[in-house]
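for the writeup, i need someone to sanity check this before i put it in the appendix. the sequnce is what the collaborator sent (i think, or maybe the updated version? ugh). structure was predicted straight from it, no edits. if anything looks off just tell me and ill rerun, i have time this weekend
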Amino acid sequence: MSRSMWILAAIFAVLAIAMIYQSNTDEGINRPWAACKENLFQQMLSGACTPVENRIKVPSN
């Protein structure tokens, strides 16, 4: 196999292991940023988080 094929095979192997790990956990992987309406990039820049549901409390400034 050529070098690019080995790199592609390694990427697929890492993705497969990550998917198996995530499926074996009961609740999946904890993603606290997913509870906000803004995407992760906007959250990093602005620090704002508008809750999708009333699951989290947003500290007032």
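The chain has two helices and no strands. The CA atoms of residues 22 and 28 lie 5 Å apart.
thx in advance!!
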